[in-house]
Structures are given as C-alpha cells and as structure tokens.
Amino acid sequence: MTLLRGLRALLDGLYTAGGVLAALCMLGILVMIVLQMLARWTGEVFPGAPEYAGYCMAAASFLAFAHALTRGAHIRVGILVQALGPRALWLAEVWCFGVGAALAWYLTYYAARAASWSWRLNDISQGQDATPLWIPQLAMVAGAGLFALALTDNLAHLLVTGRHRIRAEAIQDRPDR
Amino acid sequence: GETWDMPMAYAASNFHSETGAAFAQCITTGTGGDLEVVTHPSGALFSGADIKRAVQTGQVPIGERLLSAHQNENPLFGFDSIPFLATSFEDSAALWQAARPTIDQVLADQNLVLLYAVPWPPQGLYFNKAVDSVADMAGVKFRSYNTTTARLAELTGMLPVQIEAAEISQAFATGVVESMMSSGATGYDRKVWESLSHFYTADASLPRNYVFANADAWDGLDDATRDVITACADLAEYAGTARAMEYTTFTVTGLTRNGMTVTAPGDALTAELAAIGETMTAEWLEAAGDDGRAIVDAFKARP
Amino acid sequence: MDEIQLIGLFLFVLFLLLGTGVWVGLALLGVAWVGMELFTSRPAGDAMITTIWTTTSSWTLTALPLFIWMGEILFRTRLSEDMFRGLSPWMARLPGGLLHTNIVGCTVFAAVSGSSAATLTMVGKMSIPELRRRNYPEHMVIGTLAGAATLGLMIPPSLTLIVYGVSINESITRLFMAGVLPGLVLALMFMAYVAVRARASRHFNPDQETGLSLREMLATSRALIPVMMLITVVIGSMYLGFATATEAAAFGVLGSLVLAATQRSLTWATVTASLMGATRTSAMIALILAGAAYLSLSMGFTGLPRALAEWIATIELTRFELLMVLLVFYIVIGCFLDGISSVVLTMAVVEPMIRAAGIDVIWFGVFVVVVVEMAQITPPIGFNLFVLQGMTGHHMGVIARAAFPMFLIMVVMVFVLIAVPELATWLPDTMREARAG
Ligand code: NA
Ligand code: NA
C-alpha cells in the first residue's frame, strides 16, 4: 500500500515536473527572442538564437504533454461518448486510453530512434548554432515517454478502479474572483 | 511498377523544380513506367532541411538538397559556396568536376548515391544603397543564414542578422535587414526591389542543388533502370545548367526592369572582395583538410 | 476510383477515432499512421518523427505560445475589465452591444499576430468571462469569436499568406496589402450579422449598460489607454523595424507584464499561473499541430490532394466554375488539413490552373485565405473549434453550430470577392503605382 502510494506520488510528481520544465522552456523562448533583438540593436551577435528558441519550443511542447493531459487540457470530441451508459462509457474510455497509450508509446519509440539516428548520422543543426541534434531531441524523447506513461497510468487506473484520473478544470472564469 | 516520391524544397515554378520534374518524367518514360518518379515541390513532403536525412534513412528513396547547407556536418559540403573561388558557370563546372569524386564518396558513405547537381545563378550582393568599397558596408545589417554568410559579414564589417526565410520580405520592408548575399534569381523571385535598390553582380559563388538517391533503394533496381536514371541525370545536369544560365540573364534584366541598379562591383570593391575570398578559402581549407585541399588544387590546376 | 476509397477510409478512421473520444492530436496521428501503413511503402514511424520534430521545433511557431501567454497575463490583470469598461459606453449604442468587442478585438489583434489560434486565445481569454458576466447569449459569444478569429490570417501579418506567397513566388508585401480591405469588410459583415441577430432575437437580453453623457463616456474611455498603448507598442515594433513579426510577440509578453506591474496585479502567483496556463494551452495546440503535420505528410505520400487537384485540372471549366470547384475542394480537404498544409500540398497543381484561367494570383491569395479559413471553423478538424473547446469546455457540436452562421458569412464573402475583385487588388496596385511614380 505504501509502495503504491509512493508510486502514485512519484508519477504525479513526474508529470508536474515535466510541466514546470516545459514552463521554463517557454520562458527560454522569450529570453532567446529578447536576447536576439537586444543583440541586433546593439550591434552584437547572438549566433543561433532562432534555433535555440526552436529547441525550447519543442521541449516546451513535449514536456508539457503529460501535465496537460492530467489537467484535462488536451481536447477530445465527446458528443457520442456522452450518450453512453456507464458500462459502455467505461469501455469507450478503455479504448481511448488504450489507443492513446499505444500511439504515445509508438511516438516515444520512434522519437528515441530518431535521436539515436541523429547521433549515429552525426546530424548537426544547419543553423549557426551547429548543435548536434540528438541533444535537443532528448527533450522530445523524454516528453513523449512521460506522455505515454501518463496515458498508461490512467489506463491502469481505469482498469483497476473503473475511473481515470483526469480532472478537467473549467477555465472560463477568472480564478481570482 | 514502383513509385519514387521525390521531395524538393523550392516552389514548383523554380527552375530547379522544373529540372527535377523533367528528370522525373524522363525516368518514368525511359523505364516505360516501371519506375515512376513523382516530384513534390515547395517542401510539400519534407522541408528542405529534412530532405537529406529523409533520403539517408530511407523515408523517401530520392530527393534534392542544397548540400552547402550541411557544412556544419562536413565542411566538404561547402566547397561550392566558398566566396570568390569559382565565379562563373565555367569555373563552377570545373570546380564541380574537381570535387565530384570526393563528394560522391562522402555521400556514398552516408548511404546516398549522387545523381546530378545543378548550380544556382551566381550569388551577388543586395543593398539598399550604393556601395563602392568594403568601408561603405560597415554596420549594414546583413542577412546571415549559415557560418559562411556570418563570416563574410564579420570580414566586411557588416552586422550579421539571422532572419528566417518566412520573414525575409517583412524584414527587408521594415529595415530589420538591409543587405543579403543571394543569386539574382532569388532576389527576382522574392521581388526584393520592393525594399532594396542595388544589386552587385559580385559572382561570389554558384552553390548547387544536388539530387541523390537512397543507396538501398538504388541497389534494389535492375541495371537497365539504373542506366536510364544515370542517363536522365546527365541530361538533367546539362539542361538544368543551361536553364540556370538562361535564368541568370532573365532575372538580372528583370531586376533592372523593376528599377534596381544592377552593376558589377567597382574595381576597388572587387579587389577587396577578392582578398576576403582568399581569407575565406584559406579558412575553409583548414576546416576541410586534405580532401578539401585536393579539390581546390585540382580546380586551380585546370587548363 | 482509388481516390474515393482513400477518402472513404480516411473519413472512416477519422470519425472512428474522433467520435469515440480519442484526443484530437492523437486521433490525427492515428489516421495518418493508417494512411501511411496501408497506402505507402514508406517507413511510417521514422517519417512521422522527422515531420513532427521539424514542426514543433520551428522558429515561426514560437510566436504562438508567446501570444497565448500574453493573453493569459492580460486575463489575470484588470486590463480586460478596463477594456470592457472603456468600450461598453460606445458599443452599448450599437445593436448587439458588447458582442462587437469580440469582432473589433479580433480585428485589432489580427494586426498583431499572424495566426488565428493566437488571435482567438488572446481575445477569447479576455472577452468570454466579461461577456458571460453580462448575460450575452453563449452561442453568440462563441460564434462571433470563432468567426472573427479567422481575421488573424486575413489581416497582415499572416502565416498562410506567407506560405502562399513563397510557394507561388509572389510578393508577400503585396499579398499582405491585398488582405487588409477584405479583412475589414469581413469584420463589418460579422458586425452587421450581430446587429441583425440582436434586433431579431427575443432571447437576446444582455445586461443594459448604463447611459452616459459624452463627457462621462470620454472619462470612462481613459480605461482604454493602457491597452491601446500595448497594441501600439506591438504593432509599432513590427512596422518601425525593431522586431520581426515573430519577435513582436515577445514585445507583447513584456508589455503585458509591464502593464500588470503598473496595475499592481503582477504577483508571483499571477505570473506562474499565467505561465503554466499558457504552457498547457500551447502543449494542447502543439499536439494537434504535430498530428496535423503527420496527416499532411501521409496525405502527401498517398497523393490524394494532388490527385483531386489534377482531376479538377482535367475538366473544362469557366473561370467562375473553376472558383466554385476550388471552393468546394478546399472545404473538403479542410476536413483533414489545416490551412497551411492545404496550401502547400495543392499549390503546385492549383497555381498553373489559376494562371491559365487568367485569375489574378494576388486576388487568389485572398480567396484561398478566406476559403481555408472557413475550414478552421468546420468539423471534424477545425482549429478554431478545438481552441474554443479548450477555452469554454463546450462540446464540439455546440461550438460548431454556434460557428455555422459565421461559416455562411464567409461563403458570402467569397462571392463578394468574386463580384468586387478590387477589394483585394486595389490597395496593392495603388501602392505599386505610388512607388513607381
Ligand atoms: Na494577422
Ligand atoms: Na475543417
């Protein structure tokens, strides 16, 4: 039981950590763009700024996938499913998480393969940053893996307890009043 | 029969894409439809930056790429874009002849079979003002998109500004960039006269687009098909180069017609640029090692 | 005909995955994968990652999360409230009242951002809570937003027009000029619709704004100054050459942080909440974009859009018939593709057709933007619908129904463009003459 609770805390912590890292990458985009502008205005050079901003963009997206999932931010079309009874709804949810997890693991496998190809082929950024591409692609692998893990986690939860753990917050109204 | 999808980075109406389309048609006809090659211009399948890797790893069997974009990976790929080394179509052909065995080998090691290469029209310098010497370039915001252009900016005292392709028009219109090195063709296609006034036909270099096939896909073909492809490739290289020459005249005239001042750089500027070319050739030789030196030596020993 | 079977299969898998509630981005990945596996001999997984990596790591995409973040910051400051307080006395006199702020807001932010998703999130984040609080009918709030956000791609800067311009070698500056007037006309048509609906409907009973004298109105309008300054800074940074269109988004974020600071609403909590909120929203959009990029690759390999375009090219059509066929064509492929992919995958075949038919390519750029934008608000794949679903929590069906009148208005806009081509051509032609003279 303690083990399970520990695992639960670990997984939830991982998703949140991914989200926080992603947010830092988002901040990174802003910093890269501002530095590039500052460099241009002052006659300095910041080689590779657009590429770095691009890597931050990819990392911000992938690392946040799992976090966005657990907070119900990823969109689904729920019209048909809503009409189902509890048993059928459960089956539909199992199908969704099953398909989702399968696709996300597929994505993870090929992301890892792409990063290893980048390493083996010595694939280097064509911009002025000349970064070996496997380095920024690691964020893609980690993010995709975390996403697959989160989907699998929810699938397991659904199978065992009958409910998934996604809690969507309706974000329409102002949080502070 | 089999179908080969061929991603190409530039617009369908670009002469490289037209050459590629004719090459594809030639193979399809030549093999009696056993091998159909379908071109996908405008980066419709894979963007330019992805094409080499996509072909290497077998995601597509054939593709076209400006190899000098990959010089971070191997300096040898930059042999055709060293400024002021080969400055005419004749020189470009001689340089290509000198380099081809080496490039063939480098690509073969990367699981690629080189088919043909067609040069872009000669690269010149675009400005929004008259420029008579390197001193006039000081502080001008110059579009740099790779190490070579960044280094050129440094050596001429210009300020390298990195602007992505999608933003070029707006960047010129609002003065974020004031100058670039590019062919008359690119300037004509992008309609740079809307923001720039001078084009100096410095003929800095004639970088090439290369068409290559995945070696496994190539090995899977029978000899007859390969012979057809090789013949079509030779034809495409010849026809594409002729198109490039024709397009050079057409676009340079077009720039003039649209109100730009198009001239060769003055004597002082030419001499200064040649000196910068020497420096950059020396730097490239240092990076590219013995193979690079062999290419340049063979080129300089041309009759 | 192979194409029919192909369309049928794509539709079946798409509806199966979307209909059973698989997340949109993953559903697109699934459809694309089926297409790759069944209809091509290419390695589906490797090609998938190549295109997904390039899409998600692209510099031009970075403006999107920044604009979303800007919206999140403004949403948490007093700014949106102020903006509504300042606008309400003016808008209150128009039939339809504050609903017009959706349209005016989108028109203004369209001049700042190059995409409709960014325009939609920015304006929607601010306006939805304010309009709801004033009891405006929900379907009108959502519908006007969905429609007006498409102006993000009509009014410059515009990503779709850039991609169109590059793929047919036409001047992007002229295309941008061409989008201005049609964008404004479309905005006016949306506003006219709102006014008529408001007058005609008995269920349109929002809270009445209190009547004010002109003097009081001007006094209240002072609340608009901060937001006007912010917009001026962002647009100014672009047109004065301080920033590129992408970089302008950074100005927007910094500007809204400064504004929040001056209003004393810049706390650690609001900054982190806005950043995390923006991270989630942009991750959601990135997943859909990744799926869409893969679907676009898969469709490219199967050759479907091209085959359809080639088929159209073989039938003898008059100019008007050709435009009508293309209208239907882009609406149909818009069921699967986002606007930019639609343009990239078809232009190689469509460009010669329109040039042969003697259609002005600059004008056609605007036509294409209106047409592919219509696809953004139609199911099953409509980006504005997805973004709105994320923002409001409503079902896709509800949102699609609310947006349907806007779709019809855009159809009317297409005919307006055909009847009065000068809307698109006058400004670029005049600019060219002015330059030449
Ligand atoms: Na816009
Ligand atoms: Na659609």
TrEMBL record, chain A:
The keyword Transmembrane helix applies. It holds the Pfam family DctQ. One of its GO terms (cellular component) is plasma membrane. Signal peptide: none annotated. The chain crosses the membrane at residues 20-40, 52-69, 89-112, 133-151. One of its GO terms (molecular function) is transmembrane transporter activity. Residues 29-159 form the Tripartite ATP-independent periplasmic transporters DctQ component domain. This is TRAP transporter small permease protein. It comes from Roseospira visakhapatnamensis.
TrEMBL record, chain C:
It comes from the Bacteria. InterPro entries: DctM, TRAP_DctM. Residues 12-423 form the TRAP C4-dicarboxylate transport system permease DctM subunit domain. It comes from Roseospira visakhapatnamensis. One of its GO terms (molecular function) is transmembrane transporter activity. GO terms for cellular component: plasma membrane. The keyword Transport applies. This is TRAP transporter large permease protein. Part of the tripartite ATP-independent periplasmic (TRAP) transport system. It is a multi-pass membrane protein. PANTHER family: C4-DICARBOXYLATE TRAP TRANSPORTER LARGE PERMEASE PROTEIN DCTM, SIALIC ACID TRAP TRANSPORTER PERMEASE PROTEIN SIAT-RELATED. Keywords: Cell inner membrane, Cell membrane, Membrane, Transmembrane, Transmembrane helix, Transport. The keyword Cell membrane applies. Belongs to the TRAP transporter large permease family.
